[in-house]
Structures are given as structure tokens and as C-alpha cells.
Write a structure and sequence with these properties.
The protein is mainly alpha-helical and 302 residues long. The chain contains 12 helices and no strands.
């Protein structure tokens, strides 16, 4: 009899404990919801600001669209579009596998070469400009002067730079390399400046306390912090330059763009299809490779 009573008491204690745990869980959930509501209520009311921003965007869109006049698709234009899409499935195979200077392989390699050299020269020249533009390295007056130079470079479109340098160097691949080098300086310098200004100066102070000289501080304290960011930025710029090299070729800056434009103008759509397939394949391969490299640099993974 006593054993039964003891067992009954233990069951009551267990039931009270279980009920207490459930009640505590419900109470903690209610408290968390109350905290969320209090946080939402304490935030400033930004409805009028959001409405103002939406109104400004709507006005800008309406004002911009007022300058666009759509007159429909002409009969000739629709015919050209149909021919282009038809011939995409029937490219000029002779041109695709032509190994002369007029063939697709040579023009693709020339386009890659222009992008590579333009990126390399631009990335190298951007390093001293970036250090001279960083406010934590040089006085603000000097930094703002070099930032103004970088801003000037970035303001002018790449096509304008190409048209300028064609007058100086003449048409060809050298003009494309020069144009892409200058355009790369503008974009890469901006990214380099951000990386330099985010340097962990505590490491440099520790190295200074250990008696390291300037060269040792640069090798041990600066280069390891900046190398991954610099390389990733250069690879990203190479992706942009590879696509821009085709556009710059249209104005005579070398690469595959010039023969592509000539084929479009002379209605040779099979040649156009050959150039387009080569460009698509090139961009996909380069994009995959650069993505893998940037991922490994950023996260240390393959």
C-alpha cells in the first residue's frame, strides 16, 4: 500500500514538473513576441520618407519614359531578326575552324590578349595610384587630388577613350590595350582604395613594436591583407574587359568586334552566328574559371 502511495506521489510530481516546463516554454515565447513588438514600435516611423522616395522614383521614370518614342518594328527589321535567329543554328563552320588571321580562333585569341594585357597594365598602374589616394596612407590633400584623377578616368566611357586613342595610335590591338588599361585604372583603383583604407593597422603597430623595418612591415603586414582583394578585383575587371574588348573592336580597337560589325553590316548572318557562338563559349568558360578563382580567394574553398 505504501509503495502504491509513493508511486502516486511521484507521478504527481512528474506531472507538475512537465506542466511547469510547458508553461515556462509558453511564457518564454510570449516574452520574445512582446520584445519583437516593442522593437517594432520603437522604430521611427518612416512611412512619409518611403512615400517620398517612391514619388521621386515615379517622377524620374515618367520623365525618362517621355523621351522614348516607340514606332513599332519595321518589316526590314523583323526580317533581319528572323535571319539572325535562323542562322544561329547554322554558323559558318569554315570560319569557325579557319586558323588564319581572319578566322575565329585567331580573333578570339586576340580579344583575350587585349583583355589580359589591359587588365595587367591597369592593375599594376592602379597600385601606386591607390596608395596615393588612400587617406590613411597620405595626407588628405594629396589623396583627394589623386581621387579626382581616378574619378576623371572613370567619368569618360570606354568608347570615348577608344576614339581618342585611335587618333593617337591608329586602329588595332594596341589601341585596345591602351584603352582598356586606362579604363581599368579607374575601376580597379576605386576597389583598391577601399581595401587599403580597411587595413588592420593594429598588425602594423605590432610589427613596429617588434622592431620590423618598412620592407618587413609591407611584406608581412600589408601584402597578406591586400593580396586576395587585389587579385579578386583584377580577375573581376578581366571579365569586364573581355566583354568590352568586343565592343571596342567595333570602333577599330582590335579583336573580334570589327569583323563582327562588318558581317552585320553586309548581312552575312552565318558569319555573325560563328562570331556569336565563339563569344558565348568564351565568356562562359572565362566566367566559370574566374568564379572558381574568386571563390577560393575569398573563402578558401574550391
Amino acid at each position: 500500500m505504501e509503495a502504491v502511495m509513493n508511486e502516486h506521489e511521484e507521478m504527481k510530481k512528474t506531472e507538475r514538473t512537465a506542466n511547469g516546463d510547458v508553461a515556462g516554454d509558453i511564457l518564454s515565447r510570449l516574452e520574445s513576441r512582446v520584445r519583437v513588438l516593442e522593437k517594432l514600435m520603437s522604430e521611427p516611423k518612416m512611412l512619409w520618407m518611403r512615400l517620398l522616395i517612391f514619388g521621386i522614383i515615379a517622377v524620374i521614370v515618367y520623365w525618362g519614359s517621355s523621351a522614348i518614342t516607340y514606332n513599332g518594328i519595321t518589316d526590314r527589321g523583323s526580317g533581319i531578326a528572323v535571319n539572325v535567329f535562323k542562322n544561329l543554328l547554322n554558323p559558318d563552320r569554315e570560319l569557325l575552324f579557319n586558323l588564319t588571321r581572319d578566322g575565329v580562333p585567331f580573333l578570339v585569341l586576340e580579344t583575350i590578349g587585349i583583355a589580359v594585357l589591359g587588365t595587367v597594365f591597369g592593375a599594376i598602374l592602379a597600385i601606386p595610384i591607390s596608395f596615393l589616394s588612400a587617406t590613411n596612407i597620405v595626407p588628405k590633400g594629396i589623396a583627394y587630388l589623386f581621387r579626382a584623377i581616378v574619378l576623371f578616368i572613370r567619368t569618360i566611357p570606354s568608347l570615348m577613350w577608344a576614339l581618342i586613342w585611335i587618333r593617337v595610335t591608329g586602329p588595332g590591338a594596341f589601341c585596345g590595350v591602351t584603352t582598356q588599361s586606362i579604363c581599368s585604372i579607374g575601376m580597379i583603383s576605386k576597389m583598391y582604395i577601399m581595401a587599403i583604407e580597411n587595413l588592420d593597422t593594429g598588425i602594423l603597430e605590432s610589427l613596429d613594436a617588434c622592431g620590423c623595418n618598412t620592407f618587413e612591415k609591407i611584406r608581412v603586414g600589408i601584402i597578406p591583407q591586400l593580396s586576395a582583394s587585389f587579385i579578386s578585383t583584377a580577375i573581376y575587371r578581366f571579365d569586364i574587359n573581355l566583354k568590352d574588348a568586343t565592343v571596342l573592336g567595333i570602333v577599330g580597337a582590335g579583336g573580334i568586334g570589327s569583323p563582327l560589325m562588318q558581317s552585320i553590316s553586309s548581312f552575312k548572318y552565318q558569319r555573325v552566328a560563328a562570331f556569336l557562338w565563339a563569344l558565348v563559349l568564351l565568356v562562359v568558360i572565362i566566367e566559370w574559371i574566374s568564379t572558381q578563382i574568386r571563390a577560393r580567394l575569398a573563402h578558401g574553398r574550391s
